[in-house]
Amino acid sequence: MARFTLRRLQEGWRTQLRVVHALMIRELHTRYGRENIGFLWIMVEPLLFAGLVAILWRFMKGPEEHGIGIVPFVVTGYIPITLFRHGVARSISIFVANSSLLYHRQIKIIDFILVRFIIEMLGGMMAYVFIGTVLYQFGQFPMPQNLGLFISGWLLYSFVTLSICFVIAPLSDMSDVLEKFVPVVTYIMIPFSGLFTMASWLTPTLRGYLLWSPFVNAMEMMRKGLWGDDVTAYYNPWNPIVVSVVTLAFGLRLCRHVRNILAVE
Amino acid sequence: MIECINLCKSYPIGSGRKHVLRDVNLTVGPGERVALMGRNGAGKSTLIKLIGGVEMPTSGRVSRRMSVSWPLGFAGGFQGSLTGYDNARFIARIYDRDYRQIKDFVEDFTEIGRQLKSPVKTYSSGMRARLAFALSLAIEFDCYLIDEIILVGDQNFQRKCHHELFEKRSDRSMILASHSVDVVREYCNRAILIHDTRAMNYGDVEVGITMYESF
After folding, report:
1. Global pTM?
2. Is residue B199 assigned to a domain?
3. Which parts of chain B sit beneath pLDDT 70?
């Protein structure tokens, strides 16, 4: 009996991998087509965002802030926030948009969320590597001092974002009002994302409040991983871990509820 | 074998609920061809969607111990912005089949030639029906869920469906939602009549038809 269950689990796992793979190809086709650079478009948007804002800041604020280059500082802030904002925006009404796929039983609604998120995450990572390499050639980007810490920070940031997508997607299906609030809320979130400042630049009281945000903790990890001893970072990896696990559990519960009441044309 | 156990389905409507199906119990064994009859809006499509797992029942459950196709009709199953070939490739991937075999079968069965390179949203409903049938036949299910409206194709398509589905695959099961008494008489060996949220089972198709006509 135990072996039988294990085999079924393996089979289910293989099916899900197959489905996610097929859905990703389909999503890339429908979104970017096969013309010109095709799926490489996934990294263009975060690239443009981070690049142009960095140039803007460079001219507004000069070459350095608190001893680190302003261009790489802005880039490290904007690529993660782009992942968050796009991930959330893509999760809205995701079930309705994909409902015709539910005719195939092996496709689950959480696959939709997963697929769109993975695409955003891959785009963000590609943009990060690309822009980092280019800037490094011009001496404008540091060689990562602690690659492991940097990657852990990125993964935690992504995991928090994914868990929030798992809540936003079913909620947007349950209430139309949510859709109207998401853009403004993600905008208000910017100061709490660690985008503009490092925690060490703030007063201890303010820092205390800001470090409740899982995004700030993950962002500090990424920046510490990049600049190493050149910066002082404050972070607790358990904050993003706990926040995302709790959010994910809640989100999965909501997804299950929505699947049960979802009307498919 | 497919078993529906105490299936209920209701949708929220205004402040109340509209009950579409109540306590539906039915079993479909291998090789059985079940006609699903009922007036417009009686709940035929809803029952097909529940059996196909497209929607979830409000209560009760469906157990499937044979492979069941997705509901074949005009809606669902396809991505309109993708081409016929891309849809075939997608279906081959998620059902873990060899794409080349599926491609050959689809080209042969649909006879729509170069149109397969165009997005499915540009297809006529007849062409969509051909593609849906071709794909589900290529994958080979034990039980086919069919909405009869899609069988209303041209002569050539009807002949092909008849040959592929009723002759070559006569051992398969089928659940066919239908208004056409002739179709039911010709192809089905059982009838289920949905009326007033209940499903009634008739082992004899003729009895079912008589009841259906009396409503």
Report:
1. 0.91
2. no
3. 74-76, 149-150, 152
A162 phi, psi to nearest 5 deg: -60, -45
Mapped onto helix, strand or coil, the DSSP state of residue B58 is: coil
Report which listed range, A42-51, A104-113, B156-165, is most confident.
Answer: A104-113
Q: Do A103 and B93 touch (CB under 8 A)?
A: no
**Contact indicator for B178, B148 with CB cutoff of 8 Å:** yes
Contacts of A34 in chain B (CB under 8 A): none
- What is the rounded average pLDDT for all residues in chain A? 90
A29·B82 Cβ contact <8 A: yes
* DSSP β-bridge partners for residue B119: B83
Which residue in A18, A260, A262 is closest to B96 by CB distance?
Answer: A18
Residue B71: closest CA among B145, B152, B172, B139: B145
Interatomic CA distance for residues B37 and B176, integer angstroms: 9
pLDDT of residue B91: 93
Q: How far is B14 from chain A (nearest CA, A)?
A: 15
Contact B68, B145 (CB under 8 A): yes
Nearest to B56 among A25, A30, A259 (CB): A259
Question: Helix-strand-coil percent breakdown of chain A, rounded to 5?
Answer: 80, 0, 20
Residue B185 within a domain: no
Residue B104 lies in a domain: yes
Q: Is B140 left (phi over 0), alpha (psi -120 to 50) or beta?
A: left
In our burial notation (b when 16+ CB lie closer than 10 A, e otherwise), range B24-55 reads bebebeeebbbbbbbeeebbbbbbbbbbbbbb
Question: How many domains would you assign to chain B?
Answer: 1
Q: For residue B108, what are the domain limits?
A: 74-140
Q: Which residues of B touch A259 (CB under 8 A)?
A: 56
Measured between CA atoms, the residue of chain B closest to residue A260 is: B56
Cα distances (angstroms) measured from residue B133 to each of A107, A120, B77, B171: 20, 35, 11, 17
